[in-house]
Design a protein that fits this description.
Length: 314
């Protein structure tokens, strides 16, 4: 039996690092509107946690936070599976009376927070470059820790991407080639450094298509779930996934990418198992293919369930 929860604010909470966190109103609205989303992966006997079950209809059992103490007193074998873990969620479960033995430790959440930082893509892409030939090597992201470093990177790469260390679905990302003048870039970097400590800089990409490899990690082994394809805005913000079969997405990928999908997945598996030691759970890797066929294999990594996982179909 599992207790499922959709909490789309998880990256925001990871960024704060705090045990008490209130997400932006638009994210709270998203959570409220999609709180039954776990129906998409729920199985017989699973429970879905919602803020208020009144007026909600589901074929699965809906439970509220105030019920958790009694539920876990009767069954401590329930596995809790939220969209993603963070310290604020751990504290809320603890306050609701869920026994510590049923929850991840603070040390585990610290590890998730560390691995979810966008600087992890430096290590991932560095290992990729160790495996592939010269023609398929990629530019490495750079962590910029001061406003001066940000503007130096911007001056050297006028067409570039700037990213907040923790974010999701393309949020916390600017494309300096998309109506961003120097002063706006400066102000944005100043704010992100003040709140999150640094900015990740990436050289510009002439994007042709976006894909994501979906994974589940258990006992240090990364299991490949499938490939998804999705649409983003010119600023890199997630719009929606495409509903396509695996064979169709694979065919589209191989038709435009200089790196064959099977080879890319073999390398990603090795690299993921090397870098994400100690992490167990779902993981999504965003990739993009540029107009010249070059593959960027580790654009983003999400340590949680992803929307793409909902669209995996044969």
């Amino acid at each position: 039996m599992r207790l499922l929860l959709f909490n789309p604010e998880t990256e925001y909470a990871l960024a704060s690092g705090a045990s008490f966190y209130t997400p932006p109103k638009q994210v709270e609205k998203l959570r409220k509107n999609l709180e039954l989303l776990p129906e998409a992966w729920a199985e017989a006997g699973d429970l879905i946690l919602v803020d208020d079950a009144k007026d909600l209809v589901s074929k699965f059992t809906l439970v509220e936070w105030g019920m958790l103490r009694d539920i876990f007193e009767g069954n401590r074998g329930i596995k809790i599976e939220p969209w993603g873990w963070n310290h604020a969620l751990l504290r809320r479960f603890t306050d609701a009376g869920v026994p510590a033995e049923c929850l991840p430790s603070k040390k585990t959440i610290d590890l998730i927070r560390k691995l979810a930082h966008r600087r992890i893509t430096i290590s991932l892409n560095l290992l990729w470059n160790d495996y592939v030939d010269a023609g398929n090597k990629v530019d490495l992201p750079v962590e910029l820790k001061t406003e001066a470093e940000c503007m130096e990177f911007y001056s050297a790469h006028k067409r570039c991407w700037m990213k907040a260390p923790w974010s999701s679905s393309g949020r916390g990302v600017i494309n300096t080639a998309a109506d961003m003048d120097e002063e706006l870039v400066r102000q944005w970097c100043h704010g992100i450094i003040r709140r999150q400590g640094s900015v990740m800089g990436e050289t510009g990409a002439f994007r042709l298509a976006d894909f994501a490899s979906e994974w589940k990690i258990k006992d240090q082994e990364a299991e490949y779930i499938g490939l998804s394809s999705f649409e983003t805005s010119n600023r890199g913000k997630y719009i929606s996934n495409f509903v396509k079969s695996q064979s169709q997405i694979k065919k589209e990928f191989n038709a435009i990418s200089a790196v064959n999908l099977e080879y890319a997945i073999v390398l990603q598996k090795k690299i993921i198992e090397n870098v994400f030691r100690g992490y167990e759970g779902f993981l999504g890797v965003d990739m993009l293919v540029e107009t010249d066929g070059r593959l960027r294999p580790f654009v983003e990594v999400n340590l949680r369930r992803t929307m793409g996982m909902l669209y995996i179909q044969e």
